[in-house]
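Summary for the funding panel

The consortium committed to producing paired sequence-structure records for every protein in the target list. Below we show the first two records in order, beginning with the earlier of the two.
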Amino acid sequence: MHRYRSLALLLSVVAIAACDKNGRQDITAPESGALVKFFNFGVGSPSVNFYANTQKVTAISSAACQPPNDTTTVCRTTGTESTNGVAYGAAGNGALYNQLTPGQTTLAGKISSLADNGLAIASVSTALDNGKFYSYFVSGIYDGTAKKADAFVVEDPIPTITDYSQASVRFVNAISNSQAMTLYAKSTTTGTEVPAGAAVLYKAAGAFTQLTAGVYDLNTRTTGSSTNVISRSAVSFVAGHVYTVTARGDMVSTVTANKPALDNTANR
């Protein structure tokens, strides 16, 4: 039988930190298995729960079993699951890694609401290697008629920290109607701006780049252009930590919630 266990269950400190999307997860000595983060970045998509093959690996507990309503058999055994799921722009399991059995695996986001419950809106079949880290993204723009979005998986080759004055940062492009973009980081202290890797196409990830720890204004630009495409101000990169900055949204949308944005999530 396949085993699917979240690393959040291994350390109570990590479990408490799960509510902080940019909290640090200790992954320096993982147990055997592949480790996967899940993101719902499909513009306009419904909330989802994430699955590995037929096994649900992320879900949200309902408040129905909070005291004093926690005495029922259901609450004391399986618990009650909320239909909220993981909304657009959010990550499953507080953006912590989930431990999965290695091998060929179908990762999917399935609708969590009562209407169309369990319907897969995006899935990818991929080989997960033992001891490696990955991120799975529901991406692109949700088709409400077909009830489908796009999806992709990238490996997270977590760099070894050798200089604890530095942070490691990479860029992922989850915007289906974008051109290749380069992420630039401008120090709010010195005003110096540097690229965090090279140009990244849709469904791809750049290499991790070292930046001096500090606060940065982030911008993306297309090749050969000096015009900022997506911007985010005052992002903190902490020394010794590893981060993925992901572009999500719709490049032509006039709806505020759907406009392009930069997500910053700590890998370590």
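The next record, for a separate protein in the list, is shown here:
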Amino acid sequence: MKRWFNWFSKSDYQNMGIDLGTANTLVVVHDRGIVVQEPSVVAVESSTKEVLAIGNDAYLMVGRTPSNLIAIRPLKDGVIADFTMTEHMIRSFIKKAMRVSGLSSPRILVGIPWGITELEKRAVFDASANAGATETYLIDEPMAAAVGAGLSVDSPKGHMIVDIGGGTTEVAVISMGGLVTCKSIRIAGIEMDDTIVSHCRKNYNLLIGERMAESIKIEIGSAYPFDEERSTTVRGRDLLSGLPRTFTLSSYEIRDALSEPVHAIIESIKLTLEKTPPELAADIMDTGIVMMGGGALLHGLCEYVAQETGVRVSRAPDPLLCVAVGTQRILGDPNLMATIHSSIFRRR
């Protein structure tokens, strides 16, 4: 089993890890750290489908493009929705990483959501190969995130992680180098943004954009009350008059709007705990739940999860970077790679 992991330990091999996310993509190079961190967005000309911008440049166009341009996210709910655009995006990020790091023809480890289909895995393999990778391996994101958070994934003691990304939330119990139980739901950060958009449309007849919704979530979004409630100014288009309008949103109404996706995430945590063997459940009471991913930054989420589950909850250091950092650590440790082999996939 260990022989097919040997390439990670050879110094002449050029290894690259990718956290291919619905909202953001991060590229990490062994011994160099994170070299690319950009939104998973591609801007195209609507009639010819010509790619005009990728990543940061494309994200600046979201909600601002003329009718002949479209800014799209080629990944939906953590999996490839538009193969061609994903291939363009991966190729661009790999080339940018190679320019920064000086690598060529890298071998790649890509973090993927747990439980995706073989067809979806094949799409990732093909996109990476067509983007210039000499060889591609896939790893379950919960395992990569746990490694990136610094958990002892190879120990017999159980650990629970909750990774709230852009398109998916994954809850996993990890022990002895494997995923004991895992649940993935397609409710996460982007769903929260959509909920805020719906709230403004329904209650204020105001249409706001994706970027404004994300800004509201970051500024006044919460799962648990603030010590002192907040408010923010929102700008959008009045659906009745068609004219621009400015109004004020409060943190308590956004908290109420976000209650549905937050409750769905908490329910998935409870269901995972119910499926956890008693011995590992006892370990989790001791080690607690570790939250990671961009959604873990929502104010008061850790406190709310702790209140609802009765389990101590903590946030991982650098929660946005856990999957990428995890791939970096795995790339540099062939023994760890061999230990967690059940979460690694290669093309057959």
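Regarding this second record: The longest helix spans residues 83-101. Residues 2-144+322-346 form a domain with the Nucleotidyltransferase; domain 5 fold (CATH 3.30.420.40).
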